[in-house]
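If you are new to this repository, start here. Below is one unmodified record pulled from the training split, so you can see the exact layout before writing a loader.
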Amino acid sequence: MFVPLLFSLAFSASTPALSSGPRDGALPSWKPTITWAERTASDHPRIQRGFVTVHMDYHHVEKGRVELGVVRFSAVGKARLGPLFYNPGGPGGMASEYILATAYDELYFGPPVLENYDILGLDPRGVGMSRPAKCDPDLFNG
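And here is the target side for that same chain:
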């Protein structure tokens, strides 16, 4: 039986910052933040959509960045306990699909979770709300 994973997740409120370069072999520091979109009239009141920009390859930051889609289903309880990250598995699992379905009564999470936690789903590169990844065809045709 497939059981999705829930992970506790906290996002930084600071602006993204890339260091001047690796120190002692360390990867450059990067603090991605979520850019939340304005809600539209058709959006469920507990749903928020956004994007987070990340490097395609943290070992080769010059290869560019990609935007990943994020969906949040907000908690409404008085004792809010923080955010939970939902990953449906894969390959190609779209967390946004499950979070959006939850907003319309397809319950993938129990009432205590929905009341007390903000449920966040991040779509992997190239699926769901995330921007398509551009791959070098020579890597696959060589």
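Two things worth knowing about this chain: Residues 17 and 30 are 5 Å apart (CA to CA). The two ends are 38 Å apart (CA to CA).
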